[in-house]
C-alpha cells in the first residue's frame, strides 16, 4: 500500500483492534481465535446476508433501518436468523460493551445459512441453523484524498439474477469490478446499469452535483443504501434539489462535484473518473453542506 492509496473503507490504525472480542454464535472470542467452520455456508458459498453499522456517541446510527434491511434480506433469501430484532440488537450491544466502545466504531454483522452436512450447494444441506458473527472495530475513516473511479464492464444487474438490493455475503461481482478499476489505475469501480446509465460503485452509492442539483441513479440497480436514503432525505428537507434519475457518463464527467455514500465513510468526495477531473477535483461546497446536514441528522 503506497501513501497515495485511497479507498472508501480505509481507517486509521488503532492498536486496540488487535485485541478485539468477536461475537460468534453467542460467544465472545478473542479475534485471533474467532473462527467459523470450513463447512459454513458463508465460507463455502457466500450464502448469507450482512449489515455494516456505525456507532456515533454511544448510539448506532439508523439502527431501525439496518434491522429492517437485515430481516428483509434474510426473508428474501429464505434464511431464518433464529433470533428476533431484540436479540440481534442485544448481541450488538454485548459486543460493544465487551470491547469498551462508546463512539467511532464500525460493526459488520453477518448471518449465514450455517454449517452444512456435505460440501455442496443445496440449502437443505445447511442443517445446524444460522451462523451469526459480529466483528466490531474501533474505526475512524482515513481517506487521504478524493477517490478516483474507473468505469468497468461489470454491472449490478437485474433483480431476477442476484438482486442488487441484497447485501449478500457473495460480493464477487463487485470485487471483480474493483479489481478491474485498480488495474485501470483507479481506487474503486464506477458501475453502470443494464442500460448503460451511471449506477453505483462496487461498495458505495454514487451521486453527482450539477448546477446546484444533486443527482443519483433511479435506485433500480443499486444497493438500497441507508446513507443514500438519508442524503436524499436531508436534501429534500433543506431545499437542495435532488433527483433519482437516469444519467450518463457525459453528465458525470461534466458534473461540478461527485461523491459516494456509505455507512462507513458517510459522504466521500470523488476527484476523478476515468482520468477526467470532476469539478475542482476536491471536496465541493454542496457535498460539504450535505456532510454537515447528515452529521446533524446522525446526532439528532
Ligand atoms: C454495493 C454497496 N453499495 C452501497 C452500500 C452502502 O450502503 P449503506 O449506506 O447502507 O451503508 C453498500 C454497503 O454495504 C454496498 O455494499
Automatic annotation (TrEMBL):
Q: Is-annotated flag, keyword Ribosomal protein?
A: no
EC number(s) reported in the record: 2.6.1.42
Pathway(s) the chain acts in: Amino-acid biosynthesis; L-leucine biosynthesis; L-leucine from 3-methyl-2-oxobutanoate: step 4/4; Amino-acid biosynthesis; L-isoleucine biosynthesis; L-isoleucine from 2-oxobutanoate: step 4/4; Amino-acid biosynthesis; L-valine biosynthesis; L-valine from pyruvate: step 4/4
Any one of the GO BP annotations: amino acid biosynthetic process
User: What enzyme class is recorded for this protein?
Assistant: transferase
Q: Which cofactor does it need?
A: pyridoxal 5'-phosphate
Q: Give the UniProt keywords, A-Z.
A: Amino-acid biosynthesis, Aminotransferase, Branched-chain amino acid biosynthesis, Pyridoxal phosphate, Transferase
Q: Which GO terms describe its molecular function?
A: branched-chain-amino-acid transaminase activity
> What is stated as this protein's family in its record?
Belongs to the class-IV pyridoxal-phosphate-dependent aminotransferase family.
Q: What does this protein do?
A: Acts on leucine, isoleucine and valine.
Protein name, entry field: Probable branched-chain-amino-acid aminotransferase
Amino acid at each position: 500500500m503506497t501513501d497515495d492509496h485511497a479507498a472508501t473503507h480505509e481507517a486509521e490504525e488503532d492498536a486496540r483492534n488487535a485485541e478485539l472480542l468477536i461475537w460468534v454464535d453467542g460467544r465472545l472470542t478473542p479475534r485471533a481465535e474467532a473462527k467459523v467452520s470450513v463447512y459454513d455456508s458463508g465460507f463455502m458459498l457466500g450464502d448469507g446476508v450482512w449489515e455494516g453499522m456505525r456507532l456515533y456517541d454511544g448510539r448506532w446510527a439508523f439502527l431501525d433501518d439496518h434491522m429492517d434491511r437485515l430481516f428483509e434480506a434474510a426473508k428474501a433469501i429464505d434464511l431464518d436468523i433464529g433470533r428476533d430484532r431484540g436479540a440481534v440488537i442485544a448481541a450488538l450491544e454485548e459486543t460493544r460493551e465487551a470491547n469498551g466502545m462508546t463512539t467511532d466504531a464500525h460493526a459488520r454483522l453477518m448471518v449465514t445459512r450455517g454449517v452444512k452436512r456435505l460440501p455442496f450447494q443445496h440449502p437443505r444441506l445447511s442443517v445446524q441453523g444460522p451462523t451469526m458473527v459480529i466483528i466490531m472495530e474501533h474505526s475512524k475513516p482515513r481517506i487521504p484524498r478524493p477517490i478516483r473511479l474507473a468505469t468497468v464492464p461489470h454491472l449490478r444487474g437485474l433483480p431476477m439474477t442476484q438482486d442488487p438490493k441484497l447485501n449478500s455475503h457473495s460480493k464477487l461481482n463487485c470485487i471483480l469490478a474493483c479489481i478491474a478499476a485498480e488495474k485501470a489505475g483507479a481506487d474503486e469501480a464506477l458501475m453502470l446499469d443494464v442500460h448503460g446509465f451511471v449506477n453505483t460503485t462496487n461498495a458505495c452509492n454514487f451521486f453527482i452535483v450539477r448546477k446546484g442539483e444533486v443527482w443519483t441513479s433511479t435506485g433500480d440497480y443499486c444497493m438500497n443504501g441507508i446513507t443514500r436514503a438519508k442524503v436524499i432525505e436531508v436534501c429534500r428537507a433543506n431545499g437542495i434539489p435532488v433527483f433519482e434519475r437516469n444519467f450518463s457518463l457525459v453528465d458525470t464527467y461534466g458534473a461540478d462535484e461527485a461523491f459516494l455514500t456509505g455507512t462507513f465513510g458517510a459522504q466521500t468526495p470523488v476527484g476523478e473518473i476515468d482520468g477526467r477531473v470532476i469539478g475542482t477535483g476536491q471536496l465541493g461546497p454542496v457535498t460539504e453542506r450535505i456532510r454537515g446536514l447528515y452529521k446533524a441528522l446522525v446526532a439528532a
